[in-house]
Structures
1.
Amino acid sequence: MSNPVESAIGRKIWSPNRGKQNLKRRGVSSWLVFATVILISLVWLFPLWMALVNAIKTPLDFLHHGPLALPRHIFLKSIQAFWTDVNFPQKLLNSFIVSFFVALFGVAISFLSAFAIGIGRIRGRYFVLGLFMVAFTVPQESLVFPLYHLSQQVHLYNSVWVLVVIFSVIYSAFGTYMLSVVLGSFPTEILEAAKVDGASPRRILWNIVLPIVRPTMFALGTFFFVWVWNEYLIPLVLLADNANQTVSLSLGVTSGQYTSDPTTQAAAALLGIIPSVIFYLIFQRTLSRGVTLGAVK
Amino acid sequence: MSTVEVVSERQKRKNRSRRDSRASYYWYTIPGILAFVAVIGYPLFQNVKTSFYKWNGYGTPRYIGWKNYVDLFHDATFWASFAHAAEFIAAMSLVPTVLGLLFGALIFDFVSPYFGQGWTTFVRASLFMPQIIPITVISILWNWLLSPNTGVFNTVLKSVGIHNPPNWLGNSHTAVLSISIMLVWIQIGYTVTIFVTGMGRIDPALHEAASLDGANWWQRFRVITLSQLAPEISIVILTTAVAAIKIFAPVQIMTGGGPGTSTYVPAFFSYFNFFTTQKVGYGSAIATVLMVILSVLAVAMFRFQNRKGVDL
Amino acid sequence: MKFNAKKALRVVAVASVAALATTAVSTGAHAAPKKTFNIWWYEKGTAMATTWNDALTEFKKAHPDVQVNFQLKTWAQLQNAGNALLSSSSAPDLSEWNKGNATAGSASQANLLTDLTPYAAKYKWDKVLVPSVKLYGQYTNGIMGAGKLYGVPSYGEYVSWFYNKDMFAKYGVAVPTTFAQLEAALAKFQAAGVPPIALAGKDYLIVHLAYGLVASQASLQWVRDFQAFAHPVNFSGPEWTFAAKTISDWNKAGYFEPNVSGVDAATAVADFQKGTYPLLFGGTWLDQDMQAKATSFKWGKFANPGKLSVGSAGNLLVIPAKSKQKDLAAEFINMVLSTKYQNELAKLGGLPIAADPKYVATVKDPVALLTNTVFSSIVKKQGLAMYPDWPVNGYYNNLLAAGTQLLSDNDVAAYEKSTGDFYAANKP
C-alpha cells in the first residue's frame, strides 16, 4: 500500500503477499473449512471438466460410454473441425474487438457520468441516475427491433461497431450506478482542499479522481469484457455475415433444427470457454481488487 | 480580524466556487445522456409506441389503442410468468447473496489467512468461472447433468440409494427448481467476488476487538461482517433482482417455457411474441409493463439503499 | 498491480496483432473486383449439403467472372432473425429457407421474397415440381399451399420408425403393418422386459410422434383443414384424441424410457444407436447419423401404420427480393433441380424429387435404398401430412411444451385444450 490516498479511502484489500508473509496456524476447524471450500470449488468446476473430457472423445466413445467416462483415446478431430468450419480465429478477433472497445467506451461513459453525479453532485443527479437505471432495467428483446431499424438507417447494420455502440451504452447504465456509489464515498477532505485551491473539475477529474478509481474502472471493464463476449440475441439479429460474427454466435453451428452432435458441441463449448478463462486468469487480480465499492463510513 | 470572520470568508468563497463548478459538472453528463437517448431512449419510445399497434414486424402497423394491454391483463400466461420470475429472484438474488456472504466469509476468514493466496485465487476463480461461460455452452453442460436417466445428478442420487430421483426439467413441479439450481451455480461467482472484496475494506481491528471479547466466528460474521457490508449487499440484491426479473436466455435454452407453461417468465414471453409468434405489438406491451415494474422496483430499492447509508 | 495491467495489455495487443495478421492473409485473396454472388444455406453433413456443394463447384466453373461467396449459416439465426436478414442491406442473392407459414410464408407476406413464377416458366420447372411438391413453395397471404411460387423445394423428407433388426429377431417380432400389430409388438417387447420406444419428451421427437399418430388417423381433407384452415378443426375429434390417448396409454404401459418427459433428443437417439431400445420414431435427417453411429446392430425403417405419414418436401431455396443476382440464383436453383444433381442426391441417401427412376433403381447404397423404398411406399399409399407446427407461428413451442406435460401427467384433456387454444388464438 504505497499510495497514501488509496489507504485514505480504505482500500486496504488484498495485499498480494498476504499469504506468503505469515499464515495463521491451522487447526482442525480450519482444515474442515478448507476441505469444504475446495470440494465446493471442484463441484463448481465439474461442468467444465465435462466439456474438456467430451471434446476429446470420439463420437462412438461418447455414444457407448456417456458424458462422464474418460476418453478411451485422445481425439482432436471435433475441435479441429469446429475451428475450421466457423473460421474460429476470425470470430475470436471479432469478439475481441467488440469486447475490448465496449469495455473501453462503456467505462469511459460511466466514469464521466458518475463523476458529475458522485463528485459534482449536480442538481437532478437522482433524475440522471434514474434515467440510467431505466437503461439497466429494460429487457433487451424490446430494443432489438428498433435498434435493427436504427442501425440500418445509420449504416452500421452488420458491423461489429454497432455492437460496440449498443453495448457500451447499455452497460454504462450499470457502470454509472456502480461508479456513482464509489465516487459518492470519495473522501470529501481531498475534494474540498482541491476546490479551495481553485482546481477546475477537469483537473479534479484527471489529477485526483482518476488515479484513485482506476482499479475500480479496470474491474468494471473486465466485467463488461466478459459480459459482451457472451451476448447472443442482439448480435444474432444485427450481424448478418459470418465474417462479422462473434464467438458466442459461432457455437450455433453445432446444432441444426433436429440434429446436434454432442462431441462437436463439447468441442465448441471448450473453444468458446478458453478465451474467457485466459482473460479471467490474466485479470483476476484486478477484478478481485477493484470491485470494492469504496463506501467509507 | 477575528477567526470567525476568517472562517466565514473562507466558507463563502468555498460556497461560491462550489456553486460555480457545480454547473460545469453538467457537461460531464452529456456523453452519457446523448448515448442514452440514441441507443436506449429512442428505441424505448418506439417500443412504447408499438405497443399500441398490431404489427408483425415488417408490414404496416395498425393502431389498436389499448387493446394489447387489455389482452395482457386477461392473459393468464402473463401473470403466471410473473409468479415464476418471483421464484427466480430467490435463485438469482437471495440464495446467491446468502451463499455468497457465507462462502465469501469462509474464503476471507479461513482460506486466505490459513492457506494463503494461491488457494484463495483457485477457489475464487473456480466460483467465478460459470460467469464467463456463454449460456449456450452452459445449457449443453447442464443437460448432461440433469438428464433424468443418464445424467450426473441422478446417477449420484441412485448410487446413494435414492431409487426414484427427480425428473428435473421433465416435470412441471421441478423444472423451475432445476433452472434455479443452475442459476445459483452461475450467480455465486458474482456475489462472492463483490463480497470478498468488500470484506477487504472492513477494519481488522473490529474483528480483533470482538475476538478479545470472546465472540466466535459466527457471532463476528453476523454482527460485524454483515453490518459493514450493507452497501455491497444492497447493490448485489438490486442488480441481481433486476437480472432475475429480466431472466431470459437460460429459460429459452433449457426448457423453452415448458413443460406446459411451467417455466414461462415475462422476458421469455415477450421474446416469444416478438420473434416466434411475430406479434410485435403485444410483445412490446409485455416489455413495456415489465420495464415499468422493474423501474419502480429499482427506484424503490435505490431509495431504501440510500436510507441505509449508501451515499450519493 | 499497474505492472500486471500493462503486461496484460501487452499480451492482448500482441495477440490481436497476430490475429489481425491471420485475417489479413486469409482475406487477401478476395482482392479482385468482380460481380459477386452471395449464397447461404445451413445444411451441414447431409446429402443436400454435399450435392449443393458439388453444384456450386460446377457453377463457379461456368461463371469465372463471378465471385461466389458462400456462407454456412445456422438454423437458429435464420429461424430467429430470418426476416431481419432478408430486409437488410446484407440479404443474400440466394438462400436455403425454412418452409412453412411462420417462416417462408411470413417472409413472402412482407414482400421479402422474389416471385419465381417467371423463372419456373423459363426453366420449365413445372415438369419436375409436381403440384404435390410445388405447393410447399407457394404462398397466398402468407399461407402455404397455393398462389405465387416463392421458394423451390428440391428434396423430400419424412418421419418413420427406425427399428433394430437384431432385437426384432431376438424377440421374434415381425415388422408391423397395422396399428394392432404395432401395439402387439410393443407389448411383446415390454413383456420381455425391454421398454420398446426411445423417445425424447423434452425435444421434438414427442412432437413428431404425436403428429405421426394423428396422421395415421387423418384424411387428406383433415390435413387441409388443419394446415390451411379450410374448415375448423376439432381438437377433441378422433384424430387428435387418438394421438393423445395412445401416447398416454403407452406411457402408462411403460413403453417409453423411464422419466421420458425429461429426456432430450440427443439422449433418445443415442439410446437407440446403442442398441438399448428397439424402436425410434425419427426423420430422414437422422439417416447419416444412424449410418455413422448405429454400428453394433442391423437397423431398418418402416412407415407408421395408418393413413398418412409425417413428412413433406424439404427446405426451400429462395431468392430474396433484395437479391442483386436473381438470374444467377435461378440458374443455380435450376442446376439443383437437374437430373444430374437429383441423381447424386439419391445416391447419397437423400430423397430427390426429380431423379431418374431408372438411376435410382441402380443405387446400391443400403441407406439410400431404404430411405427411398420407404418413401415410395408412403407416397404410393396415400401421401404426406406435412408437419404439425406449420399452421400457426410459435406452434412448435406450444406442441412441445404440451407434449412434455402430457408425458409427465398423462392428462389427455389438458393436452387437447392447450394445443387447441393456442391454434385458435393464433390462426390468421
2.
Amino acid sequence: MWKAVRVGAAAVLAAALAVSAAGCGGEEPAASDDKVTLSYAVWDKNQVPVMEELAAAFTKDHPNITINVQLTPWADYWTKLRAAVTGGAAPDVFWMNGPNIQLYADNGVIMPLSDKVDQAKLDLNVYPKALVDLYTFEGKVYGLPKDFDTVGVWYNKELFDAAGVKYPADGWTWADFKAAAAKLSNPAKGVYAVGANLAGQEYFYNTIYQAGGNVISADGKKSGYDDPATIEGLRFWTDLIKNKQSPDLKTMTDTAPLNLFESGKLAMYWGGSWNVAEFGKNEYTKTRVDAAPLPTGVKQATIIHGLANVVSAKTKAPAQAWEFVKFLGSKPAAEILGRKGPIPAHTGTQDAWLTANAQFKGKVFLDAVSYAVPYPVSRNTAAWNDEEFKQLTKAYSGEVEVDAAAKELAAQMNALLAKE
Amino acid sequence: MTMTVTGAADDVRTAVPAPVPARRRRRWRHRGAEAAWAYLLIAPTGLGLAVFYLWPVLQTGYFSFTEWGPFGGHEWVGLDNYRTLAADDEVLTALRNTVAYTLLGLLGIPLAVLFAALLNRPRLRGVSVYRALFFLPVVTMPVAVAMVWRWLYNGDYGLINYLLSLAGVDGPHWIADPATALYAMVAVGIWTSLGYNIVIFLAGMQSIPREYYEAASIDGAGALAQFRRITLPLLSPSLFFVSVLSVIGSLQLFDLVYVMGGSGQAARANPAFPRIQTVVHLFYDKAFYTNDRGYAAAIVMALLVLIVVLTAIQFRLQKRWVHYG
C-alpha cells in the first residue's frame, strides 16, 4: 500500500484527470422518408412544454420525424453547444441568439437557409425586419425568427402601495425613477428599489441608449464605452448601488435578483417580455406584479432581440431538420407559441400572446417596438461580452470608478474588434 | 474515487499489515509464465489507463503548443502559449489561490487525527455509527455538497448567518466577499475529506499493537506521551499517504469552486471570484468558456509539472519522518 511507485503513479494519473476529454463522430445523411429523430436544443425551461407541444404538432403531420426537445439551462447552453459542435455532436436544430449568430455562421457551423427559403417561396417579410437582418450574414439567411422580446420594468404593486409611490406609467423619466427608488428602498429590512443586475440586455444596454450613448458603432468596428453618454448610462446603475437603492454585488451573487424580486425584496425588476411565463406561474408574483415601459432618459429606448431556429451544418437529416424549422416559422406554430410562450415573431400572431397573458399589461412590450434599439452585436460578440463582465464587475463592486472601468473596457473591446 | 473508497474500507477491516520483508520465495524458474499471467490479468486495466488517461495526457501536451479555432481545428504556435502563461496575472492569481487552498487544506490532517484518536478509544460505543456519519460527506456527490453549503453560506438567508444573528453577530456574505470566500471554501473542502482521512488514520491506529501501549503505561507514560511517542510515529505512513493525497486533491480543486463560486458570466459577476479561482477552474474557463483550448492545455500542463514536483519533494522528505513498521 505504501509503495512509492503506486502513489507516484496515482499522482500522475490524478493529474491526468484534470486534462482528459473525449468526443465522437457522425454518420450518413438520412433519406427524406426514413424514420428519424431530430434533437432540438433550447435553454428556457419555461418554454419546454410549448416546445414539446410544437414538436407533437409537427410529428402529427410528419409521422416519420420525431423531435427530442433537449433543455440546457442558459448558464451552460453556449458552453455545452460549443463543446458539442467541436466534438461533432451538435443538435440537429437549435435556438440561436444575436450575440452568437455571426460566429456560428462565419465558421460554417450552421446551414445557410436562403436557397431553401427561395425554393419553398417563403416570405420573410412576415417577420420584423430587425430580426431578419440580425440572422442574415454576408447576404444569406441562417435562421428563421421564432420570437421577439423587448425590455420593460416589472414592478411589485404591494411594495409600491406600502411606500405610497405611484405605479410607473407611460412617459415616466429617469428623474421619476430615481425619486421612486429613493422612497422604495429600505436597506434595514433588506428591501431595495431594484437589483442592479450585471446584465446587458435587460439592464445597462438600455440605460446606455437612453443616455444617448452606444455600445458599439453602427459599422461594428468601434466600442462606444469611452463615450461620456455611455458612461452616464452605466453610472445610472453604479449610483443605485452606492445609494443602497440596489443590493450590492455580494448580495446579488448569493441570491439572484430574480429570486429577490420573487420574494418581495425588490420593488422593481428590469425584465423582458419573456418573463410573463415566469411571473404568471410564480405563486408570489402572479397577483402582485405588473409591467411598465422603461423610464425615458435623454431618449426613450429599449433593447429588442429575438431568437431564431437554426439547422446544424452537420445534421444527419438536413431535409427533415429544414422541414421542422419551416414549421416552427409558420403562422400556425407562431399561434401555438403565442398562447403559451414568448411574443411570436410572425406578424398577425401577437394578439394571441396578449390574450394569453391578459393579467399583465403586455401591450407595454409591443408598444416598445416603435422606439426599440437592436441588440448590439459584431462578428465575435461573445469575446467582448466577456470583457464587459470583467471590467464592469470592478465598477459595480466599487473597486474602480465607473468612468475608468468603462475606458479600460473600451480599450480592450477595440483590441478585440480589431482582431475580428 | 469509488475504487479508493472501497479500498480504504477494506483496509479498515483487515488493518494495514506492516510490509513483510519480502523475497521469501524466489522461484526464478516460473518467473516467465507467472509474469505473462500477471500482465494478462492487468491488461484490461492497463489498456483502460492507456486509452483514457495516458493518451489524453499526451494529446494535451501536444495541444499546449497549438492555437484553436472557435469550433475546433488547430495550428502549431510553438511556445506562444507558455510565453503568455508566464506573463498572465490571471494564472498567477489562480496559482496563488491554489497554493493557499493546499496549505490551508493540510489543516484537515491534524483534525482528522484528533477525531480518529477519539474514535479509537477502547470500548467506545457505536464506533461504526460515528464512522458512517463522518464518512457520509465523502460518498456524497460533490455538487450536492457544494449546493447545500452555498445555501448555508448565503449572506442574507443562510443558516450560518441566521445562527450568528441570534448571537448578535452580523455575518458576512461568506462566498461573495473577497475577504472570506477562500476560507469558506477551504472549510467545506476539509469537511468533505475529513471522513476519508479519519478512516485511514483509524485503520493505521488499529494496526498498532496493543502491547506497545501496555508496556508504555507500565513504564509510567501518560496518554499524551503515548500518543506522541507511539501513535504518531507508527501512524506516519498513514500521515504521509493522506498528506500526499490531500496536496494532490487541493491542487486539483474544481467542483467546489465551480458550484459555489460560479462559472462563466456568473463567476465574472462574483466580486470574490478572483480570490477563489483555482488553476483547474481557470483551465476549464479557458477551455470551455472562452474557448482558448490550446492555452488551457498549457495551463494544465504547468499544473501537471507542479504536482509532479511537489509529490517528488514529499517523497524525498518522507525519509526524514516516516517510519515503516
